[in-house]
Amino acid sequence: MNTATRLSLYGISLVGVFAVAFFGGRALIPDDTVAGWTKRADEASQDHDSMESGHEMTEVGGLSVEEGGYRLVTVSAPQRAGENGELSFRILDPSGDPLTRYETSHEKQLHLITVRSDGSSFEHVHPELNQETGTWSIPWSWPEGGSYRLYADFVPADSPSVGDLVLGQGLEVAGRFEPVAKPLSRTDSVAGFEATLSGELKAGSTSHLTARIMRGGKQVTDLEPYLGAAGHLVALREGDLGYLHVHAEEGELDFQAEVPTPGRYLMYLDFKVDGRVHTAEFVLEAK
Ligand SMILES: [Cu+2]
């Protein structure tokens, strides 16, 4: 091998080293493409900010113990099905102090929802706040074993711009567990009432839903106000149990639901008749 050939081979191997460095780094992707991605990411985060501050949220809540700096802590409940005890927890504010001041929303300072992972055993209750300690508590027992999800839905009074927060946490309960299948359903029978939910869910847009309550073949028209409306609807996304914001509209049992993705949604309608609150359950599919 002569000197010239050796030098040119050296040159080729140098080119090889540069090529590896070039392809190994971001230089592989043209700069203007990267700039486009960065810009879109910025726009997305701005959109996210504006959705957070507004009321028209299409995101799901309740999948995290923390949101906006507020944290769900010291969740305690009976560990075994059938055991009588207390369910309690605290909310910490962004500085780490127990949150004791809440805005009233739907007539309550905090809405506590629990549901088993299969969508059964839904409960929507209103615990008591200890103003000194910031501890929320309510007498409690689990009907059956399984994995449960707990949601605390509230509006902190110390920072009105934060708006409605839904913090969530999972809980394991020992005891018998038979998963319950929840097929698609627009009707439910509960305590002698026939409930129907009509309307189509469309992913990414506002859907209008209307419920109707019948008893003995006649429509029930004397529903009592419950939480500031004729009824209260909670929607959970099947799969991750993400909690959706549903707004009551004008009119008897009319709602606006915003679902972010196609798939099934578990819907729970609380309504009040003769001084008693009942829950009708539906499963709808969003296209
Ligand atoms: Cu409530």
Provide structural commentary.
The protein is of the alpha+beta class and 287 residues long. Helices cover 16% and strands 41% of the residues. The protein has two helices and 20 strands. The strands form four sheets. Strands 11, 12, 13, 14, 17 and 18 form a six-stranded antiparallel beta sheet that branches. It has a five-stranded antiparallel beta sheet with strand order 1-2-3-8-7, with no helix packed on it. Strands 4, 5, 6, 9 and 10 form a five-stranded antiparallel beta sheet that branches. Strand 1 (66-67) and strand 2 form a beta hairpin. The chain starts with a helix and ends with a strand. The model is unreliable at 9-30 and 33-57 (pLDDT under 50). Bound molecules: copper (II) ion. Copper (II) ion (CU) binds next to loops.
